[in-house]
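As a warm-up, study this chain.
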Amino acid sequence: MNEVTSTEDRGVAADGTIRREGAVERVPAEFAPVVEAARAAIAGAFGPDRLHSAYLYGSIPRGTAIPGVSDLDLLVAVHDGPTDSDRAAAEEISAALDAAFPVIDGVGLLLHPVPTLLSELERDDAGFFIACLCTPLLGEDLAARLPHYRPTSLLARETNGDLELALPRWRARTADATTDEARLRLSRGVSRRLVRSAFTLVMPRWGGWTSDLHRSAELFARYYPDHPERAAQVRAAATTARTPSADPAVLAMLVEDLTPWLAVEYTAVHGTKAPRPEE
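Now compare it with the structure written out below.
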């Protein structure tokens, strides 16, 4: 069944634009102390000369985080740069929060300059990320300076149309992942990216947005009924994203089988993401 049911929440407003998915009010009580500690640490480390704004994203502001399993995802927008001092501060904040709060399993802190986030090149990638997937934590909300977004093929292409660039990196990291810990972290990251890519592949046909990985896998399966083996792989990836695997066979399936197929299919359906200068 490929139809959208009338009662299905597609994550869009009445006008068809994608709703912002998180809010500080949705942060589970167990995670509130680490969020407040992050707010204070970022404000203290960067200051007004460097810091424009800061954001939460991921499962914590969506209200779906699991204590001891979920990580804390942060984005800091700086006026320019980022500088070496900014990067050092980000690493120090991440390490300190991870060590002090067992409720989280790791901290990811992204650094981006405001001009990049608001640039035309990043309008349908980093701009969308800020406007729809990030929750304001400090400073001016850049979403006010960005458009409202719709689940279009352009958005699909610019958010995930570069899997072919990720493949060589993943192969190199797989070869270097000689410990269970390394394979666990790699399988988690690769799985998340693959499920999101599988979802955005069908996103324009579905006409909505979700960050729920298991729902994403089921939506992919709905629109690819003639590829049950790929649907099974995407479902397995969704499971691995929440429960990482150190099994080399799992990594091989993700990197050597699912990724190449998905990269080719994605390019055929949506085209290739606009190249970035560093590429």
